[in-house]
């Protein structure tokens, strides 16, 4: 068996470091967790300073978590590089401590549940998981591939730990008699999972030359025999109440992978509530750390995998992974019960972020898919425990946005002093600027995005584009009543829009240009081409309101109240006003389709479903794809997305889940058309909505052909 970490480079200095004894561990863990708590209060500098004083795997993990949070909040290259180096160090230290614990278990922490060194194996897996996320965010495809390999390795370790929990619960008779998550296949004597988490065990996980984690010895194992890797074989019948979903597919008896049956978010929450409180199983702080960390990592892993854009599905298949969002959320809810330690706190933050930033803005949802009351309670608890963090203000603002109270959301983001974490301040400014865009506060929106340029280095091209688009809107508003002021806005619009090409293409994701960079770069080329062709200023060659277009991709229409939606209709009407816009008669088919799509969306959110459907049919589907593609620098996204909008109209018309079956089938048919559509710009922005819609329909018993 090759030693773990052989592919991670030199371990100079680590092999001579002092290994923690069983007596040292609890104190080291407590110190590291107390220091890491500062992370959740936005005092990352203090956390880093205190964690740097310790050399234990727990301190290394905490320090890595601080840098990881900086990296994923800001997407800044230099921070990601620093986080990567720190995470690599944490991996190496954890694996060295784990090897020592296995070699001499008598000096290691003694657990009734886990084998010697399990706590270090978890630290290693957590470091690998965070390192994988950083690698995937890297601009290099090679680094991204390495990241997916680390995900695979982290999964194998986490799976081994969770299996030890299962075996322990089985031996102690906890949950005996449960049959919800596993059943015995007749005649085989083996259990087959019936509610899989959806994360598949890598096909050759039991044949790796490197073992990330040495499993606990079973009483019947022969000395020197390598521990078996779980393959869906015999397991205790206690799985219903375990805090981890069944994570493997039973391949041992020739069975096929189980259908990935999603469960509703409120159902996932209910299951998390019904699980055994692990604190009644053990009071050992090391064991509780292992349990909460495993739930956090498995939950995060599954949610991340479920959100990978369809374009990367083929890549993921190489690593035998697929995600189950609902199972992942259930595990995150379970982990959030331990919010007093960094594992639970991170789980709470991730849970709030996923619901408030993604699920809440989906359109085809089952009743209770977003557990509003529990989310508010979780947010309140997190604010009480970590009052210094401004991240909770962001989450509260997102909740208000989902409730169509954009003005209140802006006020909440403005509360309090600046965060000690500059990445959080950048997020606050970005969120505020988006909300100003939804509220039609264009000057504030533009100024906010320009400020973002100085606060964050991720996508300056997008920031300049959004600012320039706001000035286009201001130019249009004042052109007829204050020409001098309008010219000032026109100059700013062209200045910022022509700055966009200088910044696009400098950032990447998995070796490719960022989708928004591709989109805004093409738009500038289109408008410059039209200006030259039409003999006008660039600002007069801009087509359908780019602000309204951006609002759609950021789910802004769902955040707007009735008055704001009617204002959007007024802004869209500008395009067809031949007095204000003399170029309408020569406007291209793609712009006309985009106008109709955005207008239909406004009608839908105003509750005018028949009007929305008619607008889509007459204004969008009257143009075929070939006609749209023939336009200069065409916008092709409106056609496929219109099928999604029509599906939502059918869903609303049916009355949602439990409504008219024929109408729900029409919803499914429309959704199928966009699912089968060729690749188009910014498809990932609606991809989660489409996936959620399909899952919801499946729960209703409406399947696609």
Structure overview:
This protein has helices at residues 24-36, 44-51, 57-74, 77-103, 118-137, 141-171, 265-274, 285-306, 313-317, 325-335, 342-357, 372-385, 391-402, 406-413, 422-438, 442-455, 460-478, 483-497, 515-534, 538-541, 546-553, 556-559, 562-573, 589-605, 609-619, 625-629, 638-654, 661-675, 684-699, and strands spanning 182-185, 190-193, 508-509, 512-513. It starts with 23 loop residues before the first helix and ends in a 6-residue tail after the last helix. A two-stranded antiparallel ribbon has the order 1-2. The protein has a two-stranded antiparallel sheet with strand order 3-4. Helix 10 crosses helix 11 (342-357) and helix 27 (638-654) runs antiparallel to helix 28. Strand 3 and strand 4 form a beta hairpin. 58% of the residues lie in helices and 2% in strands. The protein contains 29 helices and four strands. Pfam families: Iml2-TPR_39. This is Inclusion body clearance protein IML2. InterPro entries: IML2/TPR_39. Interacts with lipid droplet proteins.
């Amino acid at each position: 068996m090759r030693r773990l970490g052989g592919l991670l480079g030199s371990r100079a200095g680590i092999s001579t470091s002092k290994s923690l004894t069983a007596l040292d561990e609890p104190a080291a863990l407590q110190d590291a967790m107390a220091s890491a708590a500062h992370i959740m209060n936005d005092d990352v500098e203090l956390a880093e300073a205190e964690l740097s004083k310790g050399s234990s795997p727990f301190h290394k993990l905490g320090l890595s978590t601080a840098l990881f949070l900086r990296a994923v909040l800001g997407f800044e290259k230099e921070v990601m590089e620093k986080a990567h180096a720190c995470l690599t160090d944490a991996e190496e230290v954890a694996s060295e401590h784990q090897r020592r614990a296995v070699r001499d278990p008598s000096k290691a922490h003694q657990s009734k549940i886990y084998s010697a060194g399990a706590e270090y194996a978890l630290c290693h897996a957590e470091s690998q998981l965070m390192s994988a996320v950083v690698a995937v965010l890297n601009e290099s495809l090679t680094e991204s591939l390495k990241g997916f390999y680390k995900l695979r390795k982290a999964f194998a370790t986490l799976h081994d730990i969770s299996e030890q929990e299962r075996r322990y619960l089985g031996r102690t008779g906890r949950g005996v008699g449960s049959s919800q998550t596993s059943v015995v296949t007749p005649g085989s004597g083996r259990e087959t999972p019936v509610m899989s988490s959806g994360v598949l065990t890598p096909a050759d996980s039991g044949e790796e030359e490197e073992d990330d984690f040495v499993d606990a010895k079973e009483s019947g194992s022969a000395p020197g025999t390598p521990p078996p890797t779980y393959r869906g074989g015999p397991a205790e019948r206690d799985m219903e109440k375990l805090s981890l979903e069944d994570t493997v597919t039973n391949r041992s008896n020739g069975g096929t992978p189980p259908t990935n049956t999603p469960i509703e978010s409120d159902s996932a929450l209910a299951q998390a509530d019904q699980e055994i409180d692990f604190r009644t199983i053990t009071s050992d702080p090391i064991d509780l750390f292992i349990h909460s960390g495993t739930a956090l990592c498995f939950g995060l892993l599954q949610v991340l995998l479920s959100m990978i854009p369809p374009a990367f599905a083929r890549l993921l298949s190489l690593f035998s992974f697929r995600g189950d969002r609902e199972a992942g959320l259930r595990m995150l809810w379970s982990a959030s019960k331990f919010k007093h330690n960094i594992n639970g706190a991170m789980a709470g933050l991730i849970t709030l972020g996923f619901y408030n930033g993604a699920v809440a803005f989906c359109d085809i949802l089952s009743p209770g898919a977003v557990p509003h009351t529990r989310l508010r309670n979780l947010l309140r608890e997190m604010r009480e425990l970590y009052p210094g963090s401004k991240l909770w203000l962001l989450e509260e603002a997102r909740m208000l946005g989902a409730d169509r109270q954009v003005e209140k959301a802006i006020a909440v983001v403005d509360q309090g002093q600046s965060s000690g974490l500059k990445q959080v301040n950048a997020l606050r400014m970005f969120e505020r600027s988006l909300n100003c865009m939804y509220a039609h506060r264009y000057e504030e929106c533009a100024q906010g995005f320009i400020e973002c340029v100085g606060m964050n280095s991720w996508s300056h091209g997008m920031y300049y584009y959004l600012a320039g688009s706001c000035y286009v809107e201001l130019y249009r508003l004042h052109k007829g009543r204050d020409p001098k002021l309008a010219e000032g806005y026109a100059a700013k619009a062209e200045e910022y829009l022509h700055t966009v090409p200088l910044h696009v293409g400098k950032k990447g994701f998995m070796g490719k240009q960022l989708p928004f960079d591709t989109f805004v770069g093409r738009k500038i080329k289109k408008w410059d081409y039209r200006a030259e062709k039409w003999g006008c200023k660039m600002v007069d060659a801009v087509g359908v309101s780019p602000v309204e277009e951006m609002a759609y991709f950021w789910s802004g229409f769902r955040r707007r109240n009735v008055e704001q939606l009617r204002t959007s209709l007024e802004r869209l009407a500008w395009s067809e006003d031949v007095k204000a816009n003399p170029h309408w008669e020569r406007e291209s088919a793609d712009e006309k389709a985009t106008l109709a799509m955005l207008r239909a969306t406004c009608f839908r959110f105003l509750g005018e479903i028949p009007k929305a459907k008619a607008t889509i049919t007459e204004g969008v589907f009257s143009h075929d794809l070939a006609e749209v593609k023939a336009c200069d620098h065409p916008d092709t996204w409106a056609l496929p997305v219109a099928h999604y909008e029509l599906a939502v109209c059918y869903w609303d018309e049916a009355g949602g889940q439990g409504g008219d079956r024929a109408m729900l089938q029409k919803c499914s048919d429309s959704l199928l058309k966009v699912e089968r559509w060729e690749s188009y710009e910014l498809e990932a922005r609606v991809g989660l909505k489409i996936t959620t819609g399909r899952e919801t329909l499946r729960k209703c018993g409406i399947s696609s052909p």
